[in-house]
Each structure stands twice: as C-alpha cells, then as structure tokens.
Design brief:
heterodimer, A: alpha+beta, Molybdopterin biosynthesis moea protein, domain 2, 2 domains, two-stranded antiparallel ribbon, 3 helices, elongated, B: mainly alpha, Hypothetical protein af1432, two-stranded parallel sheet, globular
C-alpha cells in the first residue's frame, strides 16, 4: 500500500516530519534521503542550499475550512466594493473568483 | 508638512529591517556554503534593504547599477553586514503592517515577470527579470516610509479612507503634504536609486504621465499592482481597490484568456509568498 505524501514548502516544514522522497540539489547531488526525520539543523541546511520544496509523509498541511473559504469570499467582495461601476474591475473580480473556486476544488 | 522638512527627514532616515529577515540573512552570511544567488534571493524579498544596497552601489558607480547581484558583487558581502548592522530592528507594533507592504511589493514583483513573459511583444525594451522584479518590489516604497516614519499621518489618512472620504493618495496628500508616490520619489532621490526605480515609484499610480521612454514599464507596474491587490495583497488600512487605468492596461493588451492564465500562474508562484508575510513576523 502506497504511503500518503504531500509536497510542501520548506517554510511549512517542521522538525519531526519525515521525508517521503529524496531531496536533491540539481540532477546529481542528493542532500538527504527519503525516510529522514527532519530536524531544525537539517531544515536550516536545506534553506542555506536554496531548497524551496520537499515531499513529506502524510498530509500535515490541511487545506482551508469552509469558514476560511467564506471569509476569503467576503474579503474579495469587500476589496472590490468601491469599483463596482468599472466593467474592467468587475471582470477582474470574476476572474479571481473563478480561480479561487478552482484552487479550492483541487 | 512642508516638502523641505519632509525631504530633510528622508535624508536622515535610518534603514529598518524585520527581525526575521535580519536573523535569516545573518545566518546565511555566517555560513560559508550560501551562494550569491541564495543571499540575493533572501535580500530581494525586502524592499528597504534592497533599496539601501542599490543606493550605496550607485553612489560611486560610473553607470547605473540596477541589479542587486551587480550591487553585491561591486560592494561585497560585507556591505550587507554593514547595512544590517546599521539598520534598526522594526518594532513589534510595526512588523505586521510592514510585512503586509513587503508582501504587496513581492506579489507585484512576481506579476511583473509573468505578465512580461505573456506580453513580450508589447514590451520592445523588456528589462531583464531581476530588474523587473525590483521594479515591482520597490514600487510602493513611499507607503513603506509613510508607515515607518509618518505613522500618525498614515493612520489618519486610512481612517478617512475607511469612512469613504476619497482615495488614499488624495487623503495622504492633504494630511502629509505628499502622496505615497511623491514621498517614494523623494526618497528615491535621497537614496540615489537609478531611473527605472525612481520612475516606477513616482508614476505607478498615473502611468500615462510617466516620461515617455518609461511608460510601458510603468504601465506594467500599474497593472501588476492592480492584480496583486485583486488577489488580496494590500498595504495596511488600504484594502479597497482603485480603478485600473484602462489605457495603460490596453497598452499591454492583456485579454481575458491571458488574464486568467497570468493569475493562475501567479497564484502558483505566490504560494510561497502568502506564507512569507506571516513568516516574516516570526522570530525565526
């Protein structure tokens, strides 16, 4: 059975998480292997070497809740509330709304 | 306030740095393995440090230094250590507002490059990616300075903005004597920032009034800023979008399909940036 994994930003990584895939720098250099338990020192070393994303075991980073989605929708309506007489801005608001929905569905 | 007293104050400003940025850069500089690119990337998220460093590089340069990597090579790594040493740490109270401003600058910077890729035919004199990034990063330097050094006046303008008394630019001009663009333009002069940056800082709100040779670049900053704000990045207290300058947007010819592609790609790249704002506030 495949182990669940999640690709996360290095900024989101916490000590104790376990790498689900090797971390490589370029095509040749393996910095650390899958199964490695992350530590504060290791995270700092990866940061120094310019690593931006890693793949860890499980799904430690949760997506937005329904309440958070509703809050995002409210904020979007609020920031466009003073340009509702501008067709170009209404079109932009709709484009952002469509993208938000698309990303939440992923 | 009289323009002369504002300018005098700008000349004597002490640079400021967020505690987390200072800690991270200090760590990178102390580690012999950090590359020039990694250090430049870390610094190029911070509009104030970037502006100070570019200004110092331009002090004695025979021709304009527009790229941070160029500035770092000419000044040396010790220049960052000196800038960091001289800069005061931003107070806890000002960290959050400043981080929001920095995030808007970074989001605009990402959008600059993405839109320029899509509309390269409309930008016959397209600058390199690093210059595009810095144009977006620094464009709202005036607001950063207003928040840091004219805090009470900025807060008063935002209160009136919330009450619907008019656009922030006019309210700030009434209260401070200069709007954010003019304030940033004055600072760009005091800090020796070269023309691409001083121009976008001064004219991004009125792109068609910019000097003719820079209009397409300033229009790109204007549109990038509008899209960044549409995605939710904004200076503190300034949540409401202003209308886009439609003539400037038409110059870039970004159609509906392009717009959705640009926003989609931007959201992918901004994933890191959205976290950046909150992480700026940690002690890290």
């Amino acid at each position: 059975m495949a182990i669940e994994e999640q690709r996360i930003l290095l900024l989101q990584a916490q000590p104790g998480m376990v790498l689900a895939r090797d971390v490589n720098q370029g095509a040749q250099v393996k910095l650390c292997g899958k199964g490695t338990v992350l530590t504060t020192d290791l995270l700092q070393q990866l940061d120094i070497r310019g690593i931006k994303r890693i793949v860890v075991q499980g799904r430690p980073i949760a997506g937005p809740t329904q309440a958070e989605k509703n809050e995002e929708k409210r904020k979007l309506a609020e920031r466009f509330s003073r340009v509702q007489d501008q067709p170009a801005m209404i079109e932009l608001q709709r484009a952002v709304e469509r993208l938000m929905r698309k990303r939440w569905a992923q | 306030m009289a323009h002369e007293s504002i300018t005098a104050r700008l000349f004597t400003l002490q640079a400021a740095v967020l505690p987390r940025t200072k800690a991270r850069l200090g760590r990178l500089l102390a580690d012999g393995n950090a590359s020039l690119t990694t250090i430049t990337d870390a610094m190029a998220h911070d509009p104030l440090l970037t502006a100070v460093l570019l200004g110092q590089a331009n002090l004695a340069a025979p021709s304009p230094v527009t790229r941070p990597t160029q500035a770092l090579v000419s000044l040396g790594f010790t220049s960052i250590e000196t800038v960091l040493g001289d800069a005061r740490e931003v107070s806890q109270r000002q960290c959050q507002p400043l981080a929001a401003c920095f995030a808007l600058g970074n989001a605009t910077a990402v959008l600059m490059r993405i839109i320029a890729d899509y509309r390269s035919t409309r930008l016959p004199h397209r600058p390199d990616d690093e210059t595009l990034h810095i144009c977006g990063l620094l464009h709202d330097l005036g607001t950063v300075i207003a928040i840091l050094h004219f805090t009470d006046k900025y807060v008063s303008a935002c209160r009136r903005l919330a009450a619907g008394e008019g656009p922030l630019s006019r309210l700030l001009e009434e209260i401070l004597g200069l709007d954010a663009c003019a304030l940033g333009g004055h600072l760009a002069g005091c800090w020796n920032l070269p023309p691409p940056y001083s121009t976008v800082i001064t004219w991004h709100a009125k792109p068609l009034s910019a000097p003719s040779e820079w209009i397409d670049l300033v229009a790109l900053v204007h549109l990038s800023r509008t899209l960044a704000r549409a995605l939710g990045f904004h200076a503190p207290g300034d949540i409401w979008l202003d209308p886009v300058d439609e003539k400037a947007a038409e110059m870039l010819g970004l159609g509906r399909t392009d717009l959705e592609r640009v926003l989609n790609r931007t959201l992918d790249e901004l994933e890191e940036l959205q976290l950046f704002e909150s992480l700026l506030l940690n002690d890290g």
